[in-house]
Amino acid sequence: MSIDKFNPRTVTLVVFIAVIAAIRTYLSMDPNMFGVSNFSAVGAMALFGGAYFNKGWKRFLFPIATLFISDIILQVTVFNKPGGGLLYGGWYYVYGAFLLMVMVGRHLRKIRPENILLASIVVVLIHWLITDFGVWIGNPHYPQTVSGYIECLVVAIPFEYRFLAGTIIYSAVMFGLFEWLKGRYPVLTGQ
Q1: pTM score
Q2: Which of 148, 154, 181, 188 could be cross-linked to 142 through a Cys-Cys bond (beta carbons 3.0 to 4.6 Å apart)?
Q3: Phi, psi at residue 137, to the nearest 5°?
Q4: Comparing C-alpha atoms, which of 100, 111, 5, 96 is closest to residue 52?
Q5: In this structure, is the dihedral angle defined by the CA atoms of residues 19, 24, 28 and 34, taken in order, positive or negative?
């Protein structure tokens, strides 16, 4: 990479997402923190990447790659089961929801606290409806009816509550810190 192609904004955005993914991975590895592991930064990572990366492929690639790498690390270390695959069952529902979460960030027109709060709520709703559809479909623990899907959604409420709290808090930190940095270092406002 030549020096004229160095983009401090892109590097800063990637570092933000990587640090948050590292925190997510670390908290999930600590057995004392496992109960709050769904207090996750995943929604904030998607929202942040969607909002700040200017090129479409970067908007999707960097958050998805970071999620993928942290998922692989967790799968190999924490959730390592004999005969288990590289990723967990139903990963495609999680990644599909994640792509939609990035799209929510893409449509954030103005970075203001109320917009980030609303986007965080939308991100959690997407996560809840899509990933729990993956939990419900074909699962013998739930009737394969609308009421069975609703039952699955209700069971997930405590997890989604923690996911909402994590998304709001991590989003506030990521967006707030990056906006503050943009104010101090104008080079970060560039395209």
Answers
A1: 0.82
A2: 148
A3: -60, 120
A4: 111
A5: positive
